[in-house]
């Protein structure tokens, strides 16, 4: 009989809850929360509370949103119980051919499935730990947008109170964002797009900046990615269980296609959960590749979390070479490989 804590994901989530509650700079109050408290309509219910109390409440809400996102990701990739073979003295039959055999096989695998899910929760939380930390310490809203789907509300809801001026403000905000995005060069530190990362490692780094050649490179690479994704999805559209792979791959592509900080790479959560859930089914070489990808991803998220005279040169190197992009591309390649295998 397995130890209860190895197969109980409730125990794992309780441990994560305790860790997240004490994570931060020695306080429960997110340092940037006052911006949302005073300016954003979405947080107006919290304005009924004193600022210090509202900050603690918001942090607790954010913690539960993080845990909810992790729980939903695990549920999405679990699927049904695997089919097993029941062998007699002379032959083997598929467990799916008999209701009794199916029930027996499901009960036999239940403990293993629970242990797999439990291990996935803890390993995924470790891989995403610095992203969770960076979300909680300042009090960011990335997890709220990813898990709770409030992106539309952030743009549209204020219009009910402030009228058309809000749409003009949104337009001005988008123009300022596009100006910031357009002002960053292809090889500038902090450009974690796939366009920048591949150029950094290849002779494409010598493309003349802001010319038709650079624009053509970006357009061709984007077209290749779109065609590859379309081909994979269309070839496997009749297969069962491919939706999680497709969704995870699309979420991984999002931070690789736009200029954004490391925090937005939290979109990798579903891919991390999916790859770790099925890690034992992989060949040893693939496990090694996955370990390297997760290590690069974790190191890439380290940049904004620590600093000091001894480690700053290393962090500058990690930031310059976009290790978070390297790790994300490794995870994406493994997802593409898994998707391809399903229709071989």
Brief write-up:
With 344 residues, the protein is mainly alpha-helical. 66% of the residues lie in helices and 2% in strands.
Notes on the protein architecture:
- Helix content is 66%, strand content 2%.
- It is globular, with a radius of gyration of 23 Å.
- The chain has helices at residues 4-7, 9-22, 33-39, 51-78, 99-127, 129-136, 142-148, 151-156, 159-162, 165-182, 194-201, 212-235, 243-257, 269-277, 284-300, 312-320, 323-341, and strands at 85-87, 92-94.
- Helix 4 (51-78) packs across helix 14.
- The protein folds into two domains: 1-149, no CATH class; 183-344, no CATH class.
- With 344 residues, it is mostly helical.
- The protein has a two-stranded antiparallel sheet with strand order 1-2.
Percent in strands: under 5%
Summed up, the helix count is 17
Distance between the termini: 38 Å
For the secondary structure, the number of strands is: 2
Radius of gyration: 23 Å
Largest sheet: 2 strands, antiparallel
- Helix content percent band: 55-70%
Shape: globular
- How would you write the strand order of the largest sheet? 1-2
Low-confidence stretches: 80-111
> Which class of secondary structure composition applies to the elements?
mainly alpha
What is the residue-averaged pLDDT?
75
Order of helices and strands: HHHHEEHHHHHHHHHHHHH
Primary descriptors:
344 residues, mainly alpha, 2 domains, 2 strands, 2% strand
Draw up the topology in text.
Elements: H1 4-7, H2 9-22, H3 33-39, H4 51-78, E1 85-87, E2 92-94, H5 99-127, H6 129-136, H7 142-148, H8 151-156, H9 159-162, H10 165-182, H11 194-201, H12 212-235, H13 243-257, H14 269-277, H15 284-300, H16 312-320, H17 323-341
Antiparallel strand pairs: 1-2
């Amino acid at each position: 009989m397995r130890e209860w804590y190895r197969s109980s994901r409730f125990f794992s989530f309780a441990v994560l809850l305790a860790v997240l509650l004490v994570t931060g700079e020695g306080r429960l109050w997110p340092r940037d929360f006052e911006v949302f408290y005073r300016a954003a309509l979405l947080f107006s219910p919290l304005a009924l509370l004193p600022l210090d109390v509202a900050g603690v409440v918001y942090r607790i809400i954010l913690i539960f949103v993080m845990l909810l996102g992790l729980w939903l990701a695990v549920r999405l990739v679990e699927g049904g119980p695997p089919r097993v073979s029941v062998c007699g003295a002379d032959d083997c039959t598929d467990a799916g051919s008999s209701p009794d055999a199916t029930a027996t096989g499901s009960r036999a695998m239940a403990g293993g499935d629970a242990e797999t899910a439990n291990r996935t929760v803890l390993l995924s939380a470790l891989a995403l730990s610095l992203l969770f930390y960076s979300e909680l310490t300042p009090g960011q809203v990335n997890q709220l947008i990813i898990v709770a789907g409030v992106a539309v509300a952030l743009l549209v809801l204020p219009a009910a109170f402030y009228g058309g001026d809000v749409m003009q403000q949104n337009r001005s905000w988008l123009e300022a964002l596009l100006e910031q995005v357009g002002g960053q060069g292809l090889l500038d530190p902090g450009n974690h797009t796939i366009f920048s990362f591949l150029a950094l490692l290849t002779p494409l780094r010598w493309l003349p900046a802001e010319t038709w050649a650079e624009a053509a490179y970006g357009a061709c690479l984007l077209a290749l990615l779109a065609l590859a994704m379309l081909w994979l999805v269309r070839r496997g559209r009749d297969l069962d269980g491919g939706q999680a792979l497709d969704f995870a791959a699309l979420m991984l592509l999002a931070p690789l296609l736009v200029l954004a900080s490391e925090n937005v790479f939290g979109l990798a959560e579903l891919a991390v959960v999916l790859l770790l859930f099925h890690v034992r089914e992989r060949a040893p070489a693939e496990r090694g590749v996955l370990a390297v990808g997760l290590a690069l991803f974790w190191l890439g998220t380290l940049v904004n979390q620590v600093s000091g005279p001894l480690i700053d040169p290393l962090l500058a190197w990690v930031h310059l070479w976009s290790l978070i992009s390297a790790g994300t591309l490794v995870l994406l390649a493994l997802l593409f490989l898994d998707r391809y295998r399903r229709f071989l």
